[in-house]
Amino acid sequence: MTGSLPPAGKVRTAGPRLLVTLAACCLLLVSMLAALLVGAADIAPRGAALQLLDWLPFVSADSGLAPVERALLLELRLPRVLLAAIVGGLLACAGAGYQGVFRNPLADPYLLGAAAGAGLTTTAVIVFTTGEGGTLLVPGAAFAGAIGGVMLAYALGNVAGRGGGTATLVLAGVAVTSFLTAIQTFLQQLDVEELQRVYSWILGNVGGGWEQVRLVLPYAVVSVVVMLLYGRLLDVLSVGDDEASSLGVNVARVRLVVLLAASLATASAVAVSGLIGFVGIVVPHVVRRLAGGSYRAVLPLSLVGGAAFLVVADLVARTVIAPAELPIGVVTAFTGAPFFVTVLRLTRRVET
Amino acid sequence: MSRVEARGLGVVLGGRAVLAGVDLRADAGEWLAVIGANGAGKSTLLRALAGLLPHSGEVLVDGTPVRGLRPRERARLLAYAPQTPALPGDMTVFDYALLGRTPYIPHLGRESRADREVTGSVLERLDLTALAGRTLGHLSGGERQRVVLARALTQRASVLLLDEPTTALDLGHQQQVLELLDRLRLADGLTVVTTLHDLSVAGQYADRMTLVADGGAAATGTPEQVLTEELIGEHFDARVRVVAGTGGRPQVHLERP
């Protein structure tokens, strides 16, 4: 009886999944390379390419770049590309995690008030402080605000729902979001002078440099590892709370752990990049269309796909009207929406 | 082979006592049908047996209280399928059935080759091998019910708790699913507890029946003992005629008042 294995099911699902994984990894590599070679500063792409090769271990190449150009590549472009990749990966992975927790493909990383919380604290910092000191406070404030927003929504949902389902939690998120946004709007109009700074933070920016990369990396690693480990359990959750419990899974604990990890990912991404929308909801969706609904595929592929998507979005943001820059949040929505619609049209499937 | 028992089972939902002091028993390899009017608490009883609801009293499998077991240990003894299972439309039949191996897979681990083999052989037994790669959204009602059964069987539990396993199936598919369940039960010595709303059908398959009414077990016994005109008239508020069918099993016919 066991001789006929592996069964057809495995073969049929693993094929496209492997292909999509490879494609996503290639896409990420290509987009990162492109983003390193092209930019507002006039560095010859060929020289930049040779320089990158030269930095690889055991390879030496003469790039012919001036020291200034080399420094530009190393100190500006490289961290920027890395930060875009990390933030994109975090947001998309967190989006997939939230979707698993809420068993709803429309959930996104900002669902539980992370964005509103971060928006409020950041606005407060910008409005109430002056000069350099304030700017330095922004990442910490945004991080604390995002975590605080989620915790507030979670506490409220638990009080209102008495351990009830996820619907109460979503509603609590909606309530917390509008409440915090109201305060943020009020603070914002107290000091109209600072409106531009507030908005430029809200619309997102991944040009933070090495310091921000170092800041976000530990949280990114922890949250992503936890989410990836819980992929299979999210699959179990997708067949319903009762069945998951009857299979011996502690549903409430799985939910809480994934929620915490996804919120940590969101908060750390928001802290270093502002409120970049669209990545967290669209990328997991596209992945699901291409590779099926299992969270063991959706989570890692969202990570890679989100990274590639944001690297490209940032490349567009800083080249299209160079030497000026478009806010990256505008680019993600502007390029993401048509892309999303195209994927939806091309891959008609049973509604999830 | 496992005997499953409930002693003094009570469930309070939303401040209301839905069940109180329910005793029931299904001996090893038996089919117990839980019947009762709508809202009598049949599904609640099954969920309590599966350990999904806080309850008073004891549920025992082979004399061991289930309460003392870890959830994973309990899941290796008792498999449960709700009346309308959530079937993610883009999950494949194989992946869905494989979820039944969860109680054997380490908490954050992945399934082994053995888990895949068990799943493959269960699918083969239920004639689902050809559908293994099909997504759940592309199945007919009868196929879905078989797939749910496959998931419960990969769990390798000796007690199956199935809430209305024939919901939304036409006559022929109802019969196929129940016959299949009966064959599996006899072949593997499974103990089966189902809720069934069709009394005649329940009478055909069950070895033992428990009639749930007013939060308790109003009657327990063989189908002949439970499916009587008096009991049905009293607890279902229905006028019926009960006749002895093939093998002496009672058949329930509605009569116009």
UniProtKB/TrEMBL annotation, chain A:
It is found in: Cell membrane. InterPro entries: ABC_BtuC-like, ABC_transptr_permease_BtuC. The keyword Membrane applies. Keywords: Cell membrane, Membrane, Transmembrane, Transmembrane helix, Transport. The keyword Membrane applies. CDD domains: TM_ABC_iron-siderophores_like (cd06550). SUPFAM superfamilies: ABC transporter involved in vitamin B12 uptake, BtuC. The chain crosses the membrane at residues 81-98, 110-130, 136-156, 168-187, 216-235, 256-283, 295-316, 328-347. Coiled coil: none annotated. GO terms for molecular function: transmembrane transporter activity. GO terms for cellular component: plasma membrane. It is a multi-pass membrane protein. It holds the Pfam family FecCD. Belongs to the binding-protein-dependent transport system permease family. FecCD subfamily. This is Iron complex transport system permease protein.
UniProtKB/TrEMBL annotation, chain B:
Keywords: ATP-binding, Nucleotide-binding, Translocase, Transport. Gene3D superfamilies: P-loop containing nucleotide triphosphate hydrolases. SUPFAM superfamilies: P-loop containing nucleoside triphosphate hydrolases (SSF52540). It comes from Streptosporangium saharense. PANTHER family: HEMIN IMPORT ATP-BINDING PROTEIN HMUV. One of its GO terms (molecular function) is ATP hydrolysis activity. InterPro entries: AAA+_ATPase, ABC_transporter-like_ATP-bd, ABC_transporter-like_CS, P-loop_NTPase. CDD domains: ABC_Iron-Siderophores_B12_Hemin. This is Iron complex transport system ATP-binding protein. The keyword rRNA-binding does not apply. Residues 4-239 form the ABC transporter domain.
